[in-house]
Amino acid sequence: MQRYLVPDVIGTLARCGLAAVWLISGVLKAVDPDQTYVAVRAYDVLPEAGVEIVAAMLPWVEIALGVLLVVGAGTRVVAVASAAVLLVFIAGVTQAWARGLSIDCGCFGGGGAVAPGETAYVEELLRDTGLVLLAAWLIVRPRTLIALDTRGN
Amino acid sequence: MGGASRNDKKRRQEASDRRLAAAGIRPEAKSAPDRTPLIVVGAVVVVAVVVGLAVWFVNRPATEAVTPAYASEVSGAVIAAGTGPVVIDVYEDYLCPQCERFAERYGDELTAALNRNEITVRYHAIAILDPLTNPEGYSTRAANAVVCSVPAGIFPAYHGWLFDSQPVEGSAGLTDEELIAAGTELGATGNFAGCVTGGTNSPAIAIETGTAAADPSLRGERGFGTPTVAIDGTKIDLNRTSWLQDAIAAG
Q: Which of A68, A102, A114 faces B169 most closely, judged by CB atoms?
């Protein structure tokens, strides 16, 4: 098993990293439902009722994905789901960027709103792409250390 | 290459199986794909969705609308609603999505308290998000329209309509025609249309916005923003959902 140690460790780090991102972002969204609603609405792709429902479910789905990754249950399935959600996020940010929408809540008016806006889009897309790569690793090679999936091995 | 190497692999596999059998080891039979992970993940995600919908359902504001039964008057860009003893200053920009959330969450509670004559709400019409529509300036036009709605006798209803119909940041915003048509539908009296197209209250809104932005007691972590609520000149933490009940109780 020694020869698989390095890829196992890489996989484990990918799993933990992705888990941390889902848990942190899910909890932050869950404790501030209004902010989540505003954020989802700002993408301007869903009708009002759709925004309500997506904003209500998204934090809990993110937390669920995070918990599954932490315990390492069904890692490949969770990685596929994570990649799918991330690709939706990337599509949302890209269309907002392309249409020139201001994705920041914008509730704090005042100067400097124009210049940093552009950087934020690039950062968000790079971050999401990085997370997709983590998910991709786990889809290709879901074997990790200290996971329910590999118990008894 | 495929066929040959597959045959080769198969041969080697069979040979290895024979060796294992000779040693008394039975290789695990190839079983159907294990569906357990799919089922476990599906179940957990379904639970999450149910939790999300349950939380949302419980936190929804009551659907039975409270009918406003209070008078309002305007001075500059400040609309004073009701005459109750506890005076609440609300600073809002009609393009600000968080202000829409505030109106959605606390609108009925405020109306009920106004009806009971427990509070006076001073709505400050603020325009800090003018650059966020294309063309710019929706915040000011909407703020102007809501101030126009007071003498037109349609105030609380028009205020509610503005948030219900709130355009998205980055859009063109509602046109003057749309702002006027909604007022007419609600039964606006006097020269509401002229007040909207003429931007009658725009200078007062600019002054009010400047005054509010310069008031250190209204500043949050990132400076002045909307919605801001102040009681006796002290900014209220809107994360404490009982702020209104507490203020009324404190008298």
A: A102
